[in-house]
Amino acid sequence: MLDATDLIDLIRTYNPKTNEKLIKAAYDFGGLMHEGQMRHSGDPYFTHPVEVAALLTEQQLDDATIVTALLHDTVEDTRASYGDVAERFGPEIADLVDGVTKLTNLQLSSTETKQAENFRKLFMAMSKDLRVILVKLADRLHNMRTIRHMKPEKQVQKSRETMDIYAPLAGRMGMHWMREELEDLAFRVLNPDARASIIRRFITLQKETGNVVPKITDDIRTELFNAGIQARVSGRAKKPYSIWRKMEEKKQGFSRLSDIYGFRVICTTEDECYRVLGAIHRRWRSVPGRFKDYISQPKSNGYRSIHTTVSGRDGKQVEVQIRTQQMHEVAEAGVAAHWSYRDGERVENPFAVDPSKWVTQLTERFGTDQDEDHDEFLEHVKLEMYTDQVFCFSPKGDVIKLPRGATPLDYAYAIHTRIGHSCVGAKVDGLRVPLWTRLRNGQSVEIITAEGQRPQPTWIDIAVTGRAKAAIRKSLREEHRDRFIKLGRELTRAAFEHVGKKATDKALTTAAKELSLENAEQVLEFVGSTEISAREVVQAIYPDLAERSEEPKVDPNRAVAGLPAGMTVRRAQCCQPVPGERIVGIKHRGEGVFVHAIACEALAELEDQTDRWVDLHWHDGSHSAGNPVTLDATIGNHFGVLGRICMLIAEQKANISDMHFIDRKPDYFRVLIDVEVRDAEHLHGVMTAIDADSDVAALERHRDLDRAP
Of 20, 43, 58, 76, which residue is the catalytic one? Predict the structure, then answer.
């Protein structure tokens, strides 16, 4: 394990002005907090934070990020608190440590709904300070390098999470070296046989042809020397996972797979990049469709480079990347290049992306609506993280960025939703093409529109981008929704008339509450689309209008179970409990036991008199309709309203035992209605039927603590 001096020496190589006291203090504090803790490998736990910090020095990051790496597990795994870190190292570092701790607790590989919620939290943390993610990625990389010490099932879970989440995220941030290593480490766990097979084939290939990397490297150097260009040239064989993925994508065996070697040319100026390209293309034949100019069209994470694939020595296809030193620094560090230091000063790399702007670009399409469909949200996130980009041109020369595999339909929606909705065809490079055509870099696209055109259901399978899919789904929902609502209105009208009722807006709104739907329109939509039946809507409001099977009635004198021997029972008038509600008994000397609803406010005064409490419950079975409940109703002061309310109660097979007017106004009046019901379900049906009437402004169950025994 590196000691504090070794770590400081690593930092001093790029930042001679580093705050050595701060680094030493963080090192000592982290070591003290983790003292006695061990990793699965048997090493002291603090070796892990130190290695994470060392990884971040390779990216030449600032002192605050290095200190955060040393302390990133202290708040989660030790007795240290946020306040302790803030007091010793300041609020900036404390907030960074807190951010990493929260990311560690996110279960990004959980169920889709939870995953969408946690992705939102992840991007929220990124928007506050991107260095949180940089520490977390370094943390994951070191954990993956030492994953063999974990239990097999844990290895698989962490590797899958790495492959699905962290490796693509590293790539999206421009840290391609980290993405490749994370992918290969996860691949080693998830598919060890495939990885071993690729390595064996590599060894066999090298035995047959020798190591071609130094030979091709020398060939490129020779061509550049002859052209008078000074540049650094390096080459390597691609990672096993990268090769396996190409085999899967192209459905080719290893022997037929080309482009398994990659070479990089680092030159001085942008002009030299294009001179290098010319020299390479003069010497070797370029492969059609395998040229990308990310210098003239940079990626959103700042990546700039020229990519070309040529047929090199012995006809082998090799990819060559050409860039300047500054471009190379951004290509290696990605968005992290914004924090890079050199000679104690922040490096002003012109190609480094402002992290705040980058996160805004990354998240602007995700939407902020927390109620957004979770699968659409995840689709947006994963499209942004997992795909490369293609650049297409409009007829006016504007550049439109799209993910790889995008179609003219995606292009149309990228311009404007209205253009997408009215799209009937497309021309690519002047030729009419089907809407499912996959677009390539540099193509010119023209969208053909027509009035009256609407999105088609088949477009969902054609579109690739989350923006296009979401717009198509929304349009289809709206189009079908109007038709469903119209049909649903007719079905519910007939169903209500069948029982002598009207499907008023108030009735449908009440039904929506009972059926846990948003509003009356959604009730009609669901009826029209057959997701619920019109009969279910009627039963939600008037359940007793349907035939009820007669069950044996519980003896009213023995409705309550659990009474002490010889004790009489009475219902408390303060809360008027009915069968089906949770109840408790309170003993009263000389008067027996009074039954209260468990939520009765009168019980608060008896909490310290536990000797008087009796555990009671209602007998199972159907109870008689003899349990009085008082309802407090505010109803319209119109002719016939009160009579209609009484009829509604009668239709629910409930009896009115008393009625008392307590407030009378010109337009409304309040009335207390004593209704006798069987149980809580019956009471609910009575109240729902009353509340559905359009002249009922308010309805609630009346409680009267003055009537407490």
Answer: 76
